[in-house]
Structure formats: structure tokens, C-alpha cells
Design a protein that fits this description.
The structure holds two protein chains of two kinds. By secondary structure, chain A is an alpha/beta fold. In chain A, α4 packs across α5 and α5 packs parallel to α6. Chain B is mostly helical. Helix content of chain B is 71%, strand content 1%. Chain B has 14 helices and two strands. Chain B has a two-stranded antiparallel sheet with strand order 1-2. The longest helix of chain B has 36 residues. Classes of the chains: A alpha/beta, B mainly alpha. The interface between A and B is large, with 65 and 41 residues.
């Protein structure tokens, strides 16, 4: 139900192709991270899966092509955690998270007790209960990111797309956010597709990595297979050292020549 | 499935926007009080007791009854309709365009109405169609045509992907219509005074014709805007974010713009282009009460209606027996009040 299959996906902006003929299978419950240098097409691919940009090819969510799903049905299956969510001034955490129930409401629908219960439970799960009445704009960066995750979780979608989830967070908050997402993934069988530029974190949290370069899929596989010095050097043009962390994944460390 | 176990969680959820009953009651009181002022103030003194007698069908001097039922009651009702409609239409435009400076005239409704009215005043003075003066009809058609033109133009230049293309199309249409209006006025100086009088806005009416004329449109407009309160709140987050919540931004924008334009066109047809109400009322509610459209829309309706009744009362009494354009009063009183609210609240961003 929650596996995602991409077949020949192409995305172009004003005639310039940014994702080219991409095929990829993401299993249910898997965490797949899209990595690659800037401009590789990671965000564009996520946007194609979420149908936020026009694309050629096919994206299947579960058994159905995404093109066959209505907007609300698609949002019931795929939630998106955007790179820099816009925070409306004055909107409280509760109100913000309640927006996540939109796919479950009719056009003129109003939230019911069930929607409020779902939000209440999500807030509790993410330790945001005490902040429910606070405006989101008054929260710290880490708390805001948790609120954005809560909104995505309130959609109760089996697939979560994440675009650079740790941008502008310190290392402690980065770990907190990724641990939280991974815990929920394991707890609820969530399928996660993330665009990540932090290679060490991508390697530590992902089941597989998909390396994109100039809109093409160059390699896909477990982190140990992808995060190798020659591969990173070739595609990122970077001098790095890959260090085995004795069972805790690998660290990708830049080194000066 | 990204499920949560919701059964044990409490139904009540802190931090959700609710219409504050104190403010709602205050709005109703303000509306009743301003209506009372509007009915009682005028060149002929009429006591509150007489007004009450007239309302409950008691015995009232025929002259005073005629003043009340033919002039003051319909004018107060019309003021409430015009003020309430402009206020919620302004709030709706600000919501769908995510632009605090948006007002009901953003897409050229005022320019279209003005051109239509100028056309009718100049080329068909005093004419009527099926018993209705052609000036408001021409203004209504002009307002609708301008917004439809702006929407069509915005669609061709940006495919409605962004609001910027649509707003710029509105600016272009307004400039084009204004140039034609100015040309007509300059080449027909005999009607220029009447044109300006209409353009600056006033609620001159005799009887209930104006109310009956606009009521179906403003009721439909208000109903649609009220039904979109939740979606207008959703539009406060980014466009991609709203889309990924399963909400069609284009559809919401199109429906709300049509509804707000319908109401605006109806009230400018009967009251002229009264400026400022659609901006200051919703923003004052946002600053003083809450930014959620679940609060802003109903309170804007109540306080917009009250504000315009009072502005109209001032407009017809300050230089009596002459009348000032209401727009002069709304800006003269509204602007300092709005600035005072802005200064007294910590309005980081509107």
C-alpha cells in the first residue's frame, strides 16, 4: 500500500530538464534518501512525487498512478515536510497542526472531534502539548521543525517526503528531528523518501541511498556501497575521508588537500 | 499507515481559534448602536420612542413615518450591507492573495465600476432599464468586466501560477479603464461633477430599491466567503504546502475572488467606490482579536457594517444640508484610528 514506484520520471522547467528518465522502487517502510550535489534534481524529484510540478513518466503510490488520484486522495497517501515551511504570523501550534487534517475534510468541511483527537495525539507524541497555544513563530528552530513534522503526521499518510529536514538546525536538533522521524517510521511502518545533503546523517538513517547527478540516477544501494571516497570525490568534486563508525554507520568528513 | 491512536486523547484541544463571544457580542451591540445613531440623527428630529413605534407598527406621524421608512431605515440597512460586504470582501482578497495591502478593488473592480458609472452618467443621464436606474447597473457590469478581464489577462501571462501576474493584470486593467474614464470626463465637462460625486461614494437612496437590488448578490457573496474561512486559514501557509494538503489553491482563489467581486460589484454599484473599509476593518480585527479567518470574517462583517453606518451618518450631517462623500469620512476617521491601533499593538507583520 505504501510502496512508491517511479518509472521514467522526467521533470523540466521552461524546457530545461532537471530530472531525466528516473526509475526507482521504494519499498513500504523503507527510508530512502536522495543525495547528490546541488542541482542534482533531489527536490524536483520529491516535488514530482508530491505532484507539485508537472512531470513525464509515472509515479505509483501503492497500486495507483498518482495521476489517477484526486488532490485530497493523494494528500491522504503522501505527506510532505517542506524544506522551509512558511510560518503564518499568529497561527498557534494547534491550528497549524490541524491543517494536516485538510485531506480528510470535504471542500466546505469542518474539523470534527476525531480530527481534534488525532491532532491532540500527534502533539502528545511529539511532546508539543505544552506548546499547543503558542504561536508557531515564537518557537525555536527545532520546535518549529517538530510542529511541521506534527502537521505532516496529522495527515496520517503512509508516505512521508522530506526535503532537507535538518537545514538551519544545530547538530543536536538535527539528531533529534531525524531520530523522531525514524522512530515513527519504525513504529508505524512509514515509507520515508528524503532529500538530504548531509551525507553522514543520510548514511546513518537511511535504508538505502539514491545518488543523483545532473538529474540522473547514478547509483542506488545501501549507504556502505554509496558512501565511498572515490564515488563522492567523482560526483561532488570533494576531497573526503569516509570513516567507519564501528556499527554506527559511516562519517563523511571533508579533508583539505 | 501513519496512524495515531486517537481514542484515548481528549476532545478539547488548546490553542484553536474560536470566535470570541465578547467580541461577537460587542460587534452586535456596535451594529445596533450605530444603526440607532443612523436612524436618529438627521435634519428632522425624531425621538427614539417614535422610531420604536414605527418599528412595531404603532401609531406614528405620517411625515415622520415617511422619513423613517423611505429614507433613514433603508439608508442604515444599505450602509450596513455596503460596509459589511466591503470589509469581508477585503479580508477575503487579503487571504487569497496573501497580501495585506489587497482590498476589494485590487483586480480593477473600482476602475470598472467608475468607468461604467461615468459612461452611464455621461451618455444616458437619468435613463432607466426595467425600472432601475442604469448607473448602478452600468457600474455593476463595469466592475465585473474589469475583474473578469484581469483574471483572463493574468491567466495568459502567468497561467495563474502566481498571484503577482494576476495583481499586475489588475493594475493594467485599472489603468486602462481609468484612462478611458478620464477621457470621457474631460471631453464631457457637463457631467463631470455628477461622475465625481458617484465615484467618491454616497448612499443616496429613496426607499428600499437599493437594498432589494443588492441583497441577493451580497447574501450569496457573504455565504461563499463564510464557507471558505477554514480554507482561507489554510492559505496562510505557503502555496506548495497548501497544495500538498490536498487543497487546490487556484480553485479556492477563483471561487473566493468571484464571490468577493460579486459582492463588491453590487455594493459599488449602489454606493460608489468607498475606499479604505476593506483594508482597515479586517486589519483592525487581526491586530486586536485574532488573525484566523474564522474570527476575522464574522467580526469584519459586524464592525464593517457599524463603521459604514456611522461614516454615512457623519457624511450627511457634517456639512448639512449638503453631503460629503463617505470615502472622505472613512479615510479621515479611519486612517488615524488605524494608525493608533498599529502603534498600540505589537504588529510584527500584518
Amino acid at each position: 500500500m505504501s510502496h512508491v514506484v517511479l518509472s521514467g520520471v522526467c521533470v523540466a522547467y521552461d524546457g530545461v530538464t532537471v530530472v531525466s528518465g528516473l526509475d526507482l522502487d521504494v519499498a513500504s517502510g523503507e527510508w530512502l534518501s536522495l543525495i547528490g550535489p546541488n542541482g542534482a534534481g533531489k527536490t524536483s524529484l520529491l516535488r514530482a512525487i508530491a505532484r507539485l510540478v508537472p512531470f513525464d513518466g509515472e509515479v505509483r503510490i501503492g497500486e495507483d498512478p498518482s495521476s489517477a488520484l484526486g488532490a485530497r486522495e493523494l494528500a491522504r497517501r503522501v505527506a510532505v515536510l517542506h524544506q522551509e515551511p512558511q510560518i503564518p504570523p499568529g497561527m498557534t501550534v494547534s491550528q497549524y497542526v490541524l491543517l494536516g487534517r485538510s485531506p480528510h475534510l470535504g471542500y466546505f468541511g469542518r474539523e470534527t472531534g476525531r480530527d481534534r483527537r488525532v491532532v491532540s495525539e500527534v502533539l502528545r507524541r511529539l511532546s508539543l502539548e505544552g506548546l499547543a497555544s503558542r504561536p508557531v513563530e515564537h518557537l525555536s528552530g527545532g520546535e518549529r521543525q517538530r510542529a511541521a513534522i506534527a502537521r505532516a503526521l496529522a495527515q496520517q499518510a503512509p508516505v512521508l517526503l522530506i526535503d532537507e529536514p535538518t537545514t538551519s538546525l544545530d547538530v543536536g536538533r538535527q539528531q533529534e528531528v531525524l531520530e523522531l522521524i525514524d522512530a515513527i517510521r519504525l513504529e508505524q511502518g512509514l515509507t520515508v523518501i528524503a532529500a538530504m545533503h548531509e551525507l553522514t546523517l543520510a548514511g546513518q538513517y537511511s535504508s538505502r541511498l539514491a545518488l543523483l547527478v545532473a538529474g540522473r540516477l547514478v547509483a542506488v544501494g545501501p549507504p556502505k556501497e554509496i558512501l565511498r571516497e572515490p564515488v563522492i570525490s567523482q560526483h561532488y568534486g570533494a576531497q573526503v575521508k569516509v570513516i567507519d563508525l564501528n556499527g554506527s554507520g559511516t562519517a563523511v568528513v571533508p579533508v583539505r588537500a | 499507515m501513519l496512524g495515531v491512536r486517537a481514542r484515548a486523547a481528549p476532545l478539547a484541544l488548546a490553542g484553536l481559534p474560536r470566535l470570541p463571544w465578547l467580541w461577537a457580542a460587542g460587534g452586535v451591540v456596535a451594529l445596533l448602536a450605530s444603526a440607532a445613531v443612523g436612524v436618529l440623527v438627521g435634519p428632522v428630529h425624531i425621538s427614539p420612542g417614535t422610531v420604536l413605534q414605527a418599528l412595531i407598527g404603532g401609531s406614528v406621524d405620517p411625515g415622520q413615518a415617511n422619513i423613517l421608512w423611505s429614507l433613514r431605515f433603508p439608508r442604515v440597512v444599505l450602509g450596513a450591507i455596503v460596509g459589511g460586504t466591503l470589509a469581508i470582501a477585503g479580508a477575503a482578497y487579503q487571504g487569497v492573495f496573501r497580501n495585506p495591502l489587497a482590498d476589494p478593488y485590487l483586480l480593477g473592480a473600482a476602475a470598472g465600476a467608475n468607468l461604467g458609472a461615468t459612461f452611464a452618467v455621461t451618455f444616458a443621464p437619468g435613463a432607466s432599464l426595467i425600472g432601475v436606474n442604469v448607473v448602478p447597473m452600468a457600474a455593476f457590469v463595469g466592475a465585473g468586466a474589469a475583474v473578469a478581464g484581469a483574471y483572463a489577462l493574468g491567466r495568459t501571462v502567468s497561467g495563474l501560477r502566481s498571484t503577482t501576474g494576476l495583481i499586475l493584470a489588475g493594475v493594467a486593467i485599472a489603468a486602462f479603464f481609468n484612462s478611458i474614464e478620464t477621457y470621457i470626463q474631460q471631453t464631457h465637462p457637463a457631467s463631470i461633477r455628477e461622475s465625481y460625486s458617484w465615484i467618491l461614494g454616497r448612499l443616496v437612496t429613496a426607499g428600499w430599491d437599493g437594498v432589494v437590488l443588492v441583497l441577493p448578490y451580497v447574501v450569496l457573496s457573504a455565504a461563499v466567503i463564510f464557507l471558505h474561512r477554514r480554507l482561507l486559514d489554510a492559505l496562510m501557509v505557503g502555496e506548495d504546502e497548501v497544495t500538498s494538503l490536498g487543497i487546490s489553491v487556484r480553485r479556492v482563489r477563483l471561487i473566493v475572488v468571484i464571490a468577493a467581486t460579486l459582492g463588491t460589484a453590487a455594493v459599488v454599484a449602489i454606493g460608489g467606490t468607498i475606499a479604505f473599509v476593506g483594508i482597515i476593518i479586517p486589519h483592525t480585527i487581526r491586530l486586536l482579536v485574532n488573525r484566523s479567518y474564522r474570527v476575522v470574517i464574522p467580526l469584519s462583517l459586524l464592525f464593517g457594517a457599524s463603521f459604514l453606518i456611522l461614516a454615512d451618518t457623519a457624511a450627511r450631517t457634517v456639512v448639512a444640508p449638503a453631503e460629503l462623500p463617505i470615502g472622505v469620512i472613512t479615510a479621515f476617521v479611519g486612517a488615524p484610528f488605524f494608525i493608533a491601533v498599529l502603534r498600540s499593538t505589537r504588529a510584527a507583520a500584518l
